[in-house]
Amino acid sequence: DTEPDWAPSSSGITFRSTRSGTYNIWVQYFLEITSLSDSPDPFSPNGDGTREEVEIKYSLSVDKVKIDVKIYDADDNPIRTLVAQEERSFGENTEIWNGSDARGETALDGVYTYKITGYSTTGDKVEREGSITLDTTPPVTTLNSSGEIYVDGTTNYADSGYTYSLTAQDNLSG
Fold it and tell me: How far apart are CA 112 and CA 132, in angstroms?
């Protein structure tokens, strides 16, 4: 008497009369995964302390959703499972990938796909995906100098016209 037997799939709303002649209204909320983002992208898990991991953010439209988050290589092979059937709540959620594969080794440089699959308590299944670039290549640095260095046997010194220039170039953008 207190719960509907079915709801029209297009509306998610059910009206049903109870034995007393009153009507109850049930509203079914459908699972959606929205506001998908990742940052920083590209990221660079190379041990230099900068851009070491990526945050994958998403929002859920309902509570108590079982979530899978998996990372796939360019050939759509799974290389890492970040989350397996873990419950997440309504609103914004964040998962973190440190760039490692299932063996714990840093994945190769390239573009990876992450897939977030949600399973609601009502049986809905929703999947969203995005891509991340992993780049562990360190920046190229060049040191240039000009001028003359004098050596007098005990001291090295440069004349006032001596200059240094250091250039660093990184292929990361963003």
Answer: 5
Which of 2, 27, 23 is closest to 12 using CA atoms?
27
Q: Could you tell me which of 53, 101, 106 has the C-alpha nearest to residue 77?
A: 101
Between residues 97 and 62, which one has the greater pLDDT?
97
For residue 69, give Cα distances in angstroms to 133, 149, 166, 173: 17, 59, 42, 25
The proportion of the chain whose per-residue pLDDT surpasses 90, expressed as a percent, equals 51
What separation, in Å, do the N-terminal and C-terminal C-alpha atoms of the chain show? 57
The predicted model gives 140-157 an average pLDDT of 65
Distance between CA atoms of residues 64 and 89, nearest Å: 5
